[in-house]
Amino acid sequence: MCSPADAAVIKRTLEISRYAAHLAVRNQQLLLKRDGQVVGHAPCEDLGVVMVDHPQATYSHHALVSLAEAGAAVVLCGRDHLPAALVLPLAQHSQLVSRMADQIAASRPLKKRLWKQLVVAKIQAQARNVDPRLPAQKKLLALADEVRSGDPTNVEAHAAKVYWRNWLATADTLEADTEPFRRDANAGGLNAFLNYGYAILRAAIGRTIVAAGLQPGLGLHHVGRGNAFCLADDLIEPFRPLVDERVREMHRQGYVTLEQPAKAELLGVLTTPMQIGGKPQTGPLMVMLHRVAASLAGCYAGEERRLAIPLPEPNMRITGYRLMWVLAMFDLPTDTRDARRNYTLFRKQLISNGFQQMQYSVYARPCPSRENAEVHLARIEAHLPPAGEVRVLAITDKQFERMQIFWGRKRRAIEQPPHQLELF
After folding, report:
1. In which element (H, E) is residue 52 found?
2. Among the listed ranges 64-68, 170-174, 342-346, 362-366, which one has the minimum average pLDDT value?
């Protein structure tokens, strides 16, 4: 289950859409099999979101349970390639009962105040998303100031009309644009891109809500007997403009259809660099969402008055996150039965933690962040054999790429470092 320590580590996003695959698990490694052969694998604990968008994909019960136990969200897409179901783990937060009690007991005025904060943050984000040379930006900022507790006058809807009318416009092209963009959740084209991006966000937010010990069905503003993720639909609002910005850039780059390259770009929204209040609290969106959920729990408990809503870091944009490599090099004795047993156990421990053999006694593992690399360094230290020599090195992906082979060749080609967005 996603623990507080896990919240500080960016998780990988996996999409299965190119080929049919069977999902299974062995030694806590998610295996993707095709025709009985393993074509891909990843440690379950490294995964945050798994999106399955192929009609012939199959699963083992053990795979779904293992992903849930690791805190991953599984998104199942339908014929229209849009998410049809979301599988989330049951919360095992240490304060689950008290947090759920606080959430249920939350007063109506508190919910209305929190909803106002979300709406204001959303409209301000929309204002940052339009050309500053257009009058629309000042109009949106003015509308944000008009939002009252609970937004009884529905300023959010008024702002949406202004926003979408100017979403694709610039001061240079406004006169030439005869037909402004119309947001329609049931339409294709750019609307389909937006829907897909929002679904990715919704899954990630649902996962963090559950990890925080909150009930996703109990919303602040959204209600619905058939909606089990009302709270996710509330918390997503300030982050929708992140998807909007990415879709607009994709439109300008010539993306037309929602195929694999487009999906990979949209999945990248989870790695957007974010910061909270100008403080040194920075990180990718998937990590900062845990801070949002924690602040909401604090508001329910009366410990905080405002939600911690992160903003995009200025002048920064990445489509992946800094990768690290951990290399384990060892020289262990094998002259006795016990020594050979210890040698085998150490190798199995490395393999079960996602390490791959580069050479005879050299194993390497890609890590999605420095924090994750430190976790695996600590695990190796905790399982050292009683005799022999083990050396461990953590290097960046660039340093790994610069390694040169001066003689001979590698016994086994190591896989390329996995980006946060992987498609099979």
Report:
1. strand 47-52
2. 170-174
Mean pLDDT check: name the lowest of 296-310, 346-360, 361-375, 401-415: 401-415
Residue 224 CB partners (closer than 8 Å, separation 6+): 230
User: For the residues of 176-243, what is the DSSP string, one character each?
Assistant: T--S-----TT--THHHHHHHHHHHHHHHHHHHHHHTT--TTS-SS---TT-TTHHHHHHTGGGHHHH
Where are the chain's structural domains? 4-87, 96-312, 324-417
Q: Are 203 and 71 within 8 A, CB to CB?
A: no
Rg (CA), the chain: 24
Report the pLDDT averaged over residues 59-87. 85
Q: 354 with 43: CB under 8 angstroms? A: yes
Q: In DSSP terms, which residues pair with 359 in a beta bridge?
A: 362
Please name which of 324, 318, 351, 326 lies closest in space to residue 421, comparing C-alpha atoms: 318
Q: Which of 294, 307, 102, 67 is closest to 203 using CA atoms?
A: 67
CATH number attached to the domain at 4-87: 3.100.10.20
Q: Which residue intervals of 107-154 are DSSP H helices? A: 108-128, 135-146
User: pTM of the entire structure?
Assistant: 0.66
CATH number of 324-417: 3.30.70.240
Residue-wise pLDDT for 362-379, tens only, equals: 888 877 666 677 778 888
The pair of structure tokens assigned to 39 is 């074509």
Find tokens 């490599």 and name the residue.
Answer: 325
